[in-house]
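To assess whether the prediction recovers the assembly geometry, we first specified each molecular entity separately, as shown.
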Amino acid sequence: AQSVTQLDSQVPVFEEAPVELRCNYSSSVSVYLFWYVQYPNQGLQLLLKYLSGSTLVKGINGFEAEFNKSQTSFHLRKPSVHISDTAEYFCAVSDGEYGNKLVFGAGTILRVKS
Amino acid sequence: EAGVTQSPTHLIKTRGQQATLRCSPISGHTSVYWYQQALGLGLQFLLWYDEGEERNRGNFPPRFSGRQFPNYSSELNVNALELEDSALYLCASSPGGKTEAFFGQGTRLTVV
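The predicted structure of the complete assembly is given in tokenized form:
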């Protein structure tokens, strides 16, 4: 069975500082990896995805993530955050066996302070 | 291009009643997924429909059911509502194959 661990439940950071949100996954097969963002009282918006190819993936709003197969990690990074990045971020994995059924991590709340 | 749309936005029901939630996928998408986001329980997979058939369901009791219509829209029905069914229900759609899923804004179900 697949599982996703987001190592930090909350990450406080000052505006314009860099940030890394950590994600580790467990799967016995090849996986597809995703990061989604959720603003209060809204649905999920896709930030970026890894399906195959280059292990460094660039997404929207200046975010990027690196797929590390040996470490089974897919950490999300941004070099300089803005107040508007305050939201909850979810890492998710799919093995493609059941379409695009996703297994989510518990989420990380990013709080950007001025 | 319109995204995934869900209705209603909010729904308040009494314990024991039935709730019906609706989802319209992105045009051209044949798969619809339902997830429950309950406080303290995170995002949990409920159901997957593709081409009108239920393909997979998560670890939820049978009173959670649904269907997919010929136009690929979908309904989620929750019977005999319990207080712990209060949650944000998210619908997502994707085209066939191994690609990403796109989410709607969700329906907030409150059971009182």
